[in-house]
Amino acid sequence: MKVGVHIHAKSRRDFLRSAISAPLAAILFAALGWTGTLSPRLDAEARAAGIDESAGATETTKVAGASGSGAMVKLWALAEGPRRKLVLNLKAHDFQVFDEGRPQKLAYFSAPSRESLALGLLVETSRSRLYEPDPADWRPYSDLLHKVLRRGDKAFVATFAEKAELHADFTDNLQALDGALQQVFSSSPKGLTGLYDSIYVLCEERFSGEPGRRVLLVVSDSPDSSSEHTQLQTLERVERTGITVYTVLPWVDRLGQPPFGDVRFAQYFADQTGGLFFLAHSRKMLVGQLDGIRMAIDYSYTLGFIPPHTARDGRYHAIRVRCDRPDVKLHVSRGYYGLQPPLQ
């Protein structure tokens, strides 16, 4: 195993050890801070800022003079300003990207992102889950798919207990996706909880090789009890596949009751991949947060750079993205895995 992989794994083992004993207060505060973040009026603000979704208007820049020998690395960045309001008018020159501390020249920029989307929805149906959805609860997820999928996009619907079960494979057929969602939210719970194995398998069998942007939305409220893959192994598989993870914890009608310890890993997966973690204390809050995920996908920026030849090493590269505009916080992937070196 290469030295870089050892360093990467050690830093994450340190996090996992600290997460076991750390209080939940900080995580709950961060999650609850998002409950009212992405207000519906954002769509009107986007139009006022010159983003015309119906026309598909976008600023796309291919920067000449970028050098490197590897494939382009693309990052999707969500920018928020004071009071957690999304920042919609950033330009390419507002961003700086660092690969292992070395500044990189942007070779591609899009505002907002318009790459094709491969979206996966993974919902827990194990006997361990505490949240009992109503059959009508499929509708907010349907609204998310109907709003976020555009021409060229596709989605799948899956559940998991001890293993992942596909209800609708990748498709742009919204009627088929709606039918799968209705089936999911009318099904009875079964089996143990194998979240990490389910994510790992979906990375390999569904997301691998998909072009464009890959997003996985995980809805779960119980700890993993049966997976063979560890959190670190699963996170590495997610990052090697280039997936952004959004996690939703439906903690409905349990305000004041602390969630299980593994909730820290749900937040960590989202943070490391540029996604978001949500905690919902009511069905109304859950509906708002799903629309927040839609906005996060719709209003992200795409940043592309071509890494140097040293990135063809198969190891993890830590990424830092900085915005030169003051009071802007970015949600963006923390790193990527380099291409495997060519066989000698």
Keywords:
344 residues; alpha/beta; 5-stranded antiparallel sheet; disordered N terminus
3D structure, described in words:
- The protein is α/β, with parallel strands linked by helices and 344 residues long.
- The chain has two domains: 42-112 and 300-337, no CATH class; 115-288, Rossmann fold (3-Layer(aba) Sandwich), CATH 3.40.50.
- 31% of the residues lie in helices and 25% in strands.
- It is built from nine helices and 15 strands.
- The chain has helices at 3-21, 25-33, 42-48, 138-148, 174-184, 195-207, 231-241, 263-273, 283-298, and strands at residues 59-62, 73-80, 95-99, 102-104, 106-111, 117-124, 154-160, 164-171, 213-219, 243-250, 277-280, 301-305, 316-323, 329-331, 335-337.
- The strands form three sheets. The chain has a six-stranded mixed β-sheet with strand order 8-7-6-9-10-11, with helices on both faces. It has a five-stranded antiparallel β-sheet with strand order 1-5-12-2-14, with no helix packed on it.
- α7 links the parallel β9 and β10 (243-250).
- The longest helix has 19 residues, at 3-21.
- Mean pLDDT is 82; it is low at 1-9, 17-37, 39-44, 46-58 and 63-69.
